[in-house]
Amino acid sequence: MPFQSQVSRLLDDEHRANLELLGQLEQSLARMPRDGGSGNVDLAALLKRFDHQIAQDVGRHFDFEERELFARLDESGDGDMAALLADEHAVIREVAGELLPLCRAAIGGTLDADGWRALSRGTLELVERQVAHIQKETMALLPLLDDLLDDESDRQLALAYADA
Predict the structure, then answer these.
(1) Can you give the residue range of the structural domain that contains 115?
(2) Is residue 42 in some structural domain?
(3) Tell me, what DSSP letter sits at residue 34?
(4) For 5-39, what is each residue's pLDDT tens digit?
(5) Is 161 helix (H, G, I), strand (E, B) or coil?
(6) pLDDT tens-digit map of 83-111
(7) Among 6, 10, 40, 141, which lies 20 to 30 A Cα-Cα from 163?
(8) In the 8-state DSSP scheme, what is residue 68?
(9) 104 in a domain, yes or no?
């Protein structure tokens, strides 16, 4: 779906990159031995990208939406959608917060078999939650932004997001 606003396109690009990473990670974890993935170079590289995505990108992306977009949605009469998306952000942040130390232990080579199972389960949960969340935003939030943002607001928000 071609979005018109800069903000929608920026968020959509991040969504697409996130979905690609989550898909790769899900496939890699599905092929992982039951006792863990230590020594798997591809998985180690994916986990480093995933760690960055959890630690930096999720918070930055969610914070921007909550701070800059959800109030605008509320003012335009779409507050229920903003509230639903904010609730999903809270759950995804919670799952991500549980995964971050497991991910870092895996990267550092200190994760035991139970930890690998917890990392795999938690990652699959996060994948499921984020995919559903991204679909909602792609189908509902991003098209609304195209209608909601005037050219100047769109430009200012796009610059603010790029600087964040």
Answers:
(1) 7-163
(2) yes
(3) T
(4) 999 999 999 999 999 999 999 888 888 765 555 55
(5) helix
(6) 999 999 999 999 999 999 999 999 999 99
(7) 141
(8) I
(9) yes
